[in-house]
Amino acid sequence: MNIKSHPSILYFGTPVALISTKNANDTDNLAPISSIFWLGWRCIIGLGASSQTTKNLMATKEAVINLPSVQEVEAVNLLAKTTGSNPVPNTKILKGYRFEENKFELAGLTRATSETVKPFRVNECPVQMEAVVKAIHKLAEDDSTQHGRIMTFELKINSVYLNKSIIMDNNPNRVDPDKWKPLIMSFQEFYTTGNKVHESTLAQIPENLYNS
Q1: N or C: which terminal CB in the chain sees fewer CB atoms within 10 Å?
Q2: What is the pLDDT of residue 144?
Q3: Which of 15, 63, 27 is nearest to 182 (CA)?
Q4: How far from 150 is each of 25, 48, 143, CA to CA, in Å?
């Protein structure tokens, strides 16, 4: 039986991503997010308007979307309550965030030079996507209490880098979902995918037909 409910958040399960951007002084910012989805080679992300990543994306229009696997969960957790904004925004102070400038070093992650954008890729992440901002929108324009607090960004993916360990045998352009164990955020807790539960009718469609 379903009952009427009013959860504070509706994070039923989305991938964790580490977004790397460049600060105004050319240092590196690295932020974990989980408000993200893809349509073809376009990506939509949601961020707080006061976050350093938001400021960097609006200024430089460049980023790398790095997808950690379950192996990188400790590194992601080390970044969870840090911010590149100094001073720390009041909304984040209430949640226990602190300013951290050297995020790669804090998380024990290493930089990999990008080919099409200035921000670095995260070498340890099995999926790395260089991207540029194509559109910026304010969320909840119809709600005076929320308007201006959250921004959504549409990013175009320029280049994708995949670790060989997650690639389908004999096909370098496809990820094997049986090998790929993404880090999933569900109601503030870390999870991952399990075994396939049923054959998918959609899987009968050749993947290349979705190529955009």
Answers
A1: N
A2: 78
A3: 15
A4: 24, 5, 12
